Amino acid sequence: MTPIKSAVSTAAALEEWLTGVDRRTAQVGVIGLGYVGLPLILLLSEERFRVTGFDVDASKVESLNHGRSYIHRIEPEHIRAAQRSGFHATSNFAEIAEMDAVLICVPTPLNPDHTPDMSYVVSTIEEIAPYLRAGQLVVLESTTYPGTTEEIIVETINRYGAARGVKVLREGAVASSDLDGVMVAFSPEREDPGNLITPRREIPKVIGGVDSRATAAAVALYGSIFHKTVPVSSPAAAEMTKLLENIYRCVNIALVNELKQLSEPMGIDIWEVIDAAATKPFGFQPFYPGPGVGGHCIPIDPFYLNWKAQQFGVQAKFIELAGEVNEAMPDYVVQSTARALERSGGSLKGAKVLVLGIAYKRDVDDLRESPSLVVIEKLRKAGADVAYNDPFFEQVGSGRHYDLQMRSTPLENLERFDCVMILTDHSLYPYEEIVSQSRLVIDTRNATRAIDSPKIVRC
Ligand SMILES: NC(=O)c1ccc[n+]([C@@H]2O[C@H](COP(=O)([O-])OP(=O)(O)OC[C@H]3O[C@@H](n4cnc5c(N)ncnc54)[C@H](O)[C@@H]3O)[C@@H](O)[C@H]2O)c1
């Protein structure tokens, strides 16, 4: 594996780097082999790039090197096809030195006090900085607050590189004809897991380089796997773009969650209203209510900006309010369930409740920040005897914010439960059958829209 060239600072050197991308001799490293990194590797491999995957999780590295997948929607055959194109996984970060491009896809969660947990990004860049050399492109893909690329990635590369003469390329800062800088960019991941309508390649890739050469290099690399690239003027503009998208979703979901709670006492079906409003050909995009928001993005990313806003003395009121409304939804769902049980002469205390779906959204095997986990804990606290079913999770143990230790209950004899709650509307659930077998159905997703039954309570 010969790297394309040891550095880029002149137009000719950049041309040579771009030729390596064109001819697929470029070696690409992807750090973080999770829901974002692994599909990215497969796209690169499909385009005949030689890819090395890096992860601190030895079990993931081992699985991939044995051609096994640990993500539901990725078939082992796709991993094996990538292997045939030269893909291998490793925990040996010394191999970073052989890469021409390094794409970082590590987690960016929240601390318990809603501040950004940057520990994964910091440990990644500190781990790889000793191996970086002039001529490489480093791209951060993890969602984060504006300023991260400059404040953490660029700063760490320059700090570690000082003794070795390695620094980040910056416009106008390089006069020599020799190659003497690392190109750095930010390019947010915009994947929508479970979305079968928009192929990943058709999601335009936003790119903001620290300088024009970094932008050009990243545009060339991503342009060979995505149908469209969208260069912006800086990493911070690209970081803010991703947050705008997710905050837009978060705020609009909070709005419909609030309107759902208002519509209920008014006797109005909020889903009917959203569908009617969605017929307007302009100025309206439908968002749907639910038991709260989950996943790695919507419940987390807005707080990254909120935290940064405070450093500028700005209060991000929309973000705070949306977070408040969405976080209150599990309580609303539990209270609605308690009221429904009382109406049928029962009580939540001691009730046998079956929760359908613990994944954070339909048809995904991801339960990070899932509102179902919060609802289960609240039901248990209220004295209910809770079971769950989820075809994607045979069992659930403990995580950052939960400790459930439960196994999935078979979807049968539903009449033994006082109530069945649809919290995640997986498409393979037989809803007609579920309703006919159950005594009471709490539907938080409008999954039973086609079924007319007095047993259903939509909330
Ligand atoms: N999952 C999504 O749908 C999605 C969509 C858009 C953006 N994002 C963003 O992409 C980023 C990654 O998310 P994800 O869902 O892929 O996370 P993930 O948890 O599925 O995967 C992250 C991987 O990084 C590895 N890792 C952690 N620290 C490391 C280190 N120091 N060195 C090497 N590997 C390390 C972990 O072991 C894990 O395999 C996050 O910032 C997330 O917000 C995710």
Provide keyphrases for this structure.
single chain; 459 residues; alpha/beta; Rossmann fold; 3 domains; 8-stranded mixed β-sheet; 5-stranded parallel β-sheet; disordered N terminus; binds nicotinamide-adenine-dinucleotide
Layout of secondary structure:
Blueprint: H1 11-22, E1 27-31, H2 37-46, E2 50-54, H3 58-65, H4 76-84, E3 88-90, E4 101-104, H5 119-128, E5 137-140, H6 148-161, E6 183-186, E7 205-209, H7 212-223, E8 229-232, H8 235-266, H9 270-277, H10 301-311, H11 317-327, H12 329-343, E9 352-356, H13 371-381, E10 385-389, E11 395-398, E12 403-407, E13 419-422, H14 431-437, E14 441-443, E15 456-458
Parallel strand pairs: 1-2, 1-4, 2-3, 4-5, 5-6, 7-8, 9-10, 9-13, 13-14, 14-15
Antiparallel strand pairs: 6-7, 11-12
Helix pairs in contact: 1-7, 2-4, 5-6, 8-10, 8-11, 12-13
The structure holds nicotinamide-adenine-dinucleotide.
Nicotinamide-adenine-dinucleotide (NAD) binds next to helix 5.
Summarize the model shown.
The protein is 37% helix and 14% strand. By secondary structure, the chain is α/β, with parallel strands linked by helices.
